[in-house]
Queue: 3 jobs
Job 1
Amino acid sequence: MHGVTELKFEDEPEDKPQHFNFFPDHILTELMIGLTLMIVLSALATIFPASMGPKANPLVTPEVIKPEWFFYVSFRWLKLFSLTFAVLSTGFIVAAMFLWPWIDKVLRKVTGNEDISVYIGIIATFLLVGLTVWEAAVAH
């Protein structure tokens, strides 16, 4: 009353097996179909390669490339200075940020000013904002 009833034809013999073996019958069928599709798709991709336009030249960067806004500072810094100086100075700035607690201690001793880090932070913030706005304002 409940469940799946197998369909039987009138001329079907009674002693015929009522199941289809998963292994090897079903596996071999799926394997043949899968391999045939892979061969056909590989042949089509080889004969008719997909193209979306002219091939890219990795040695030429278009002038209209513009990074996300949070990379504007680095982008402008690289444009302002030579590659060697820009990369080395960026590494120096990152190293200075990690070593800032010790640099701050030395600056306080040398200058005698307890707020020297605040002034340097204000200058750095204006520099970051200025370079970001400058890069954003330039027409590309």
Job 2
Amino acid sequence: MNKKTADVLVITPHPDDAEFGAAGTVVNLVRKGKEVVYIVCTDGSKGTDDINVIPEDLVKIREKEQREAAKTLGVKDVIFLGYEDQNINETPEFRKEIVRLIRTYRPELIISSDPYRRYIWHRDHRIVGRVVLDAVFPYARDVWAYPDLIQEDLQPHNVNEMWLWAPEDSDINFRSDITDTFDIKLKALRCHKSQIKESFSAEMEKWLCTRAKDLAEGEDFKLAEGFHRVEIWW
């Protein structure tokens, strides 16, 4: 009998994406007693503008940074799938791997990247978002989608809802109050030293604060993260 469980899976294209998109919300969920597991799909090997950084070394650096950031947020565990940065594809094998993880951890909620942001959007973000949506419905749910997983006692599972970060502003239908967790979001982002240079840190924090204030406009709180929320009625 499989004993791994999590209330929430955060499925992120690259190391650091989840911190930008959902870190304040993740802290809120952890504070409510939810167990959160990160699944990082790519190795982050292309995430540098320094020609002297070897991709193989960067993979190790970014894995360490992601673990530190996740620990800062109270995340239970981090799983690295290791697909090559900028070379992940929407394959049956990738989809099945996500289904396997959903059936293993059996989450109530999945948080991931919105694949439908228009025009300028990282290809890895689009692909991961689409694969996660397909994995949730119908593949994780349907008993005959993967008969071999049934033989491994990975039974079908119904996810209750999905929260997709970085949608078009017009598609945001859920705003999460991060007024009390924004500082922890910034602390987690600072763990990604290979991505957030010291010279950029202050500018980034100012932009994130402005964005969080804009997302909270009209709400009874000051700072927010915005999502497209999908409630799944089976």
Job 3
Amino acid sequence: MIGLSYAFQFPEGDLKNRFGFNSSTGIHFLNKTKKNWIWGVDWTFTFSPQSQVKESLSLFDSINSPNGNVVDANGEYATLLFYERGWTSTLKFGKLFPIWGQNKNSGICLLTGLGYMQHKIRIEDKFNRTPQLNKEYRKGYDRLSSGLMLSQFVGYLYLGNSRLLNFYAGFEVMAGFTKNRRSFNFDTMEQDTKQRMDVYLGPRIGFILPLYKKMPNDFYYD
């Protein structure tokens, strides 16, 4: 099962102090056995609008002018934009329970996963004329964090007899055991060594292209 997915997620744990809601798009490669065991891998990309970065308000206190703005090389106020960016990569394993559906390839789907999570604050200088926030210096403010992750998904998987409509939908929880990967935060003037618990939760829906090893009718009704 090759597919694309979308999730609308809410942060919990330490993550909710840094970001608000976000979107997540993903691609997956899954295999379902004749006994309805499911295993495979997926990769997701995480992003949010500028309004959902909570930590940006105090990031540049040490380089702000008295009125709270960063001044660029032209002596004007810099236009800075902040976004959440991140990704996850997960090995997944689970089971399909064919309770509802028109064939034995549809039903309640339970998946668990072990993977890796990474996220950061993406800082953009709109006109690229603020030397104190060039590409290298931004790393001192972006809070790049990563670590091992556990995931859980419960939902409904549908693989149609016509093979034209194939999808899944359900609720997903991702819990990452992360830490800051930068050696020094410029704004706090210290290294951040705190262990974090970063949680994403929300609904996910995916669309599937199923590739059968043999014709579906051979095992729909066995």
